[in-house]
């Protein structure tokens, strides 16, 4: 991992990324996926019965407000890839 991040920065803990620079098009998701996200994060108080556009807006705002630890995401991705590789052998 020292190839991507300096060893010194890794030892200091998590690395957060400003999410404002990242744009995710949640409009590509099906309504079922948006509803699952809505229910999982208990966003029901926002709008009682939203249209798809309203649902996308609420989910997008919630998604972008979540802090992200890039190092943790990368490590989790690598671990998942290794598990998948083991299962597929």
Automatic annotation (TrEMBL):
Tagged with keyword Lyase: no
Cell compartment(s), UniProt: Nucleus
GO cellular component: histone deacetylase complex
Main location group: nucleus
Residues in Histone deacetylase complex subunit SAP30 Sin3 binding domain copies: 29-82
Gene Ontology molecular-function annotations: transcription coregulator activity
One Pfam family hit: SAP30_Sin3_bdg
Record key words, sorted: Nucleus, Repressor, Transcription, Transcription regulation
Biased composition (Polar residues): 1-20
Region (Disordered): 1-21
GO biological process: regulation of DNA-templated transcription
Family: Belongs to the SAP30 family.
The protein's name in its UniProt record: Histone deacetylase complex subunit SAP30 Sin3 binding domain-containing protein
